Amino acid sequence: MGEEPNDARPEPADRIPGGDASHQNQNQNQNQSQNQNPQQGQAQGQGQNPAPPDPRAAPSPEAPPWAPVRPAAAPGTPAAPPPPERPPATPTLAFGPPPQASGQPAGQQSGQPSGQQSGPPPGESSGAVPVGAGAAAPDYSYGYPRSGPATAPGYGPPPGYGPPGYGPPGYGPPPGHGVQPPAQPPGPANPAQAAAIGLLNISGLGLGYVLLRNWIGAVLCWLATAALLVVALPADVDGVPVGVLVGYGVFLLAAAADGFRRGLRATLRIGAAFRRLALPLALVLLAVPAGGSLAYGAARDEAKEQALLARLTTADERVKSGQGLLFERAEPLYRLALATYQDLGTKHAGSRAGKLVPARLDAYYEQLSAPYAKKDYCKAVAPLTHLRGLSGAVDKDLLGTRPAKTDEPLAESLYECGTAALGVQAADPPAEKSLNALLDTFPESDHATRVEPAVRAAVKTRSTAVDGATPCEAVVELRTIRTTVGALPGADFDGAARETSTAIEKGDFACGTSQFRSKDFDDAVTTMTQFAKDHPSSPKAAHARSIAIAAEIADEEAEAGKALPPAKAPGGSRMVMVVSNDGPGSVELLYTGPTTGRITLNACATCTKYPNPIFEGSKKIKACTGPSSKYPKATLLLPAGNYHFLQKRAGTGTSSAGDTKTSKAKIEPGYSYTNCLYVTSGF
Q1: Residue 595: which residues within 8 A CB-CB, separation 6 or more?
Q2: At what angle do helices 494-517 and 451-465 cross, to 10 degrees?
Q3: Which uninterrupted H or E stretch holds 662?
Q4: pTM of the full predicted structure?
Q5: Which residues neighbour 445 within 8 Å (Cβ) at sequence distance 6 or greater?
Q6: pLDDT (tens digit per residue) in 349-399
């Protein structure tokens, strides 16, 4: 029977507490004696007391079923000659079986026949292991580490169990592959280390994962932080969306929790000094997100400041663009600028832009008050009214006393603008609008008490002007003043109203006579006719009607307008003139001379037009030759003198309205006259 290979390796003497080489050899010899063939043990071990087993040596396990078995020598076959004696190897470099025990001949093992080879057959592995291998050393057979019990003394590993290159083919690690290190067992729990790694991760830099050599986690942290920076920078007024901040915060907490879990039992490949600094460094690095938040907050605050300053600049440009425009056109721009000023001065009063709002309001008031400073009072009324009304539209604390400072300028502007418009028909605004605004807004002001005297002064000035060269213009102004006075409130202006009416009566007559003298007969007719209607009780009403008649005749016969008709008819005898109508339709006869008047004759029912003498061979027309009762008649009593007549026949079926004819006559004392009015036909 051959020996079964033992896969346990011998424990070197220097790894056994208190052991030495001689002790080791003795144990090996004893173990060999126990593991040899029983027959050989009986033949060689008789008379010897076997040594007790060494408790320090691990029992020899059974060989695995796949281990190669050494063939037994055939019966009767002589044993192979023993190998030459070798000096024992030192424990640190020994390979193969341990040295023989003392007292035995060289080349012969205890319990073996003389001449039997004690070492392994030629070509097999000696079973030696490096110094330091023991019971706890892993077995690297077949390329996989295994732990096993210590090899009994005297036995090496079976064939195929040893360093690569020994043993039969198919055993040991594959060619070209190194030996894999054993798996690292988890270490004890280290909460401080776990906290440090978690804190390093919560900084957003992924340094906790870097210490753990978890590069995937570190890259994820870097990508998340980079994405946040891309979204957040550059800082703007709106800042980072809340969803992004919440998502990034949840990610950091998850990374911190994962780093704590991984670092609780991890063995870090860092020095002890750096390990002690990890937790303080993690706490210090917490300043990175905090400092970043503060820096981003400062950048965002600066962005807000710049945005507010930009809004202030826009409002300033709107105010500036209103220069040179009518207030009505510029007011929308001013309103927008004021809204911006109010928002900045109230909601953002502590900002740089908000602190500049008071100065901007001063400039705003100064620009809109510029017309008043230039004494352009009518143009100043609208902007000053706007400035005074801001107290109800803009924050009072922001405006302060600025609106109250516009009271006096506004009252003065209303007075000056209103009184300057007295008598100006085309004034814009009209005088009554400005003066009523003054009396309503500032009834107790000095300017309000000056209105009634100013109106009377304006009436007196125009009343004097009607005696001048331009009475018609003066009366137009007086009529405009009368409209203004009628629109003013209270009884304080009754006296001014009476004075205005008197001045207008005087002015109308003066205007009509001026027009007559200027040969403007149409306008004179209109003016004097209207005067007679407007002032029927005036002592000048009859004279005005005479002037109107004379102007109407003069409009057809210019000679009739050489002089104004007298205001009163001359005295003395009067001559009779009987006027008859020998024509179709009624007829109006106007006359002027020493006396002026008009009469109307009814239509002659049986009268017709006379043929034109040109077509009748120059036959003389014999008008009014029938019975006198046939013709409508009128009698005039005329003082002696030269007269101009104008007949105006009304339209009938045979004549058109407006047919006129002028004639002249001289009335001498002591005579009576007849005047027959007829119509001739053109064909």
Answers
A1: 565, 566, 569, 570, 638, 639
A2: 20
A3: strand 659-667
A4: 0.56
A5: 411, 438
A6: 999 999 999 999 999 999 999 999 999 999 999 999 999 999 888 898 999
